[in-house]
Amino acid sequence: MSSAIASRRYASALLDVAVEANFLETVTEDLQKIQDVISGSRDLQMALKSPLVRGDKKASILEEIFRGQVGEKTMIFLKLLAVKKRANLLSEVVTEFGTLLDEKNGYLNADVKSAVRFSEEQARELVNGLSARTGKKIRAKMSLDESLIGGFTVKIGDTILDGSVSHQLQLLRKSLSAATA
Question: Three-state SS string across the chain, please?
């Protein structure tokens, strides 16, 4: 089974149990703490991914690091991942959990790149337009990309909306090449 599928299954199972047992808020906070610690420690990342470190050893490493910092149910989940030899997927499981939680709550994350910085009003209009188009609440991450020359691109999941000048110039170049050939 691919790591993406396994990560999604574990995240989905955790989300389902957390909703059913009414500890969603706690597990969400715990997973954010876990992600922060993992992303800040290269040694922990290496230990979790190493095939030389046994599952029970990974479980005790996770317990030692997160004891007292995360809830009991989250700790049980961490140990389960380690014992099932899936501790190497922990970071991906946390990311998938966030994605599934956003889907459940009707949110979509959008990466917006623009040649110039949007005003607050322009950004609000763009987010409102994307919300109307998708039927979901949009959480936009804005960034600058001067290579676009002008305009902007929006990436939501696998969909890319490209309204940049550089893209329009590429399309024009292709159509002129095809016309002269």
Answer: CCHHHHHHHHHHHHHHHHHHCCCHHHHHHHHHHHHHHHHHCHHHHHHHHCCCCCHHHHHHHHHHHHCCCCCHHHHHHHHHHHHCCCHHHHHHHHHHHHHHHHHHCCEEEEEEEECCCCCHHHHHHHHHHHHHHHCCEEEEEEEECHHHCCCEEEEECCEEEECCHHHHHHHHHHHHHHHHC
The band of 1, judged by pLDDT with boundaries at 50, 70 and 90, is low
Note the pLDDT tens digit of each residue in 56-103.
999 999 999 999 999 999 999 999 999 999 999 999 999 999 999 998
Instruction: Answer yes or no: do 55 and 73 share one domain.
Output: yes
Q: What is the pTM of this model?
A: 0.74
Give the chain's radius of gyration (CA, Å). Answer: 21
133 and 63 belong to one structural domain: no
Q: What is the pLDDT of residues 135-168, one digit of tens each?
A: 999 999 999 988 888 889 999 888 888 888 888 8
Out of 33, 68, 102, pick the residue that ends a domain.
102
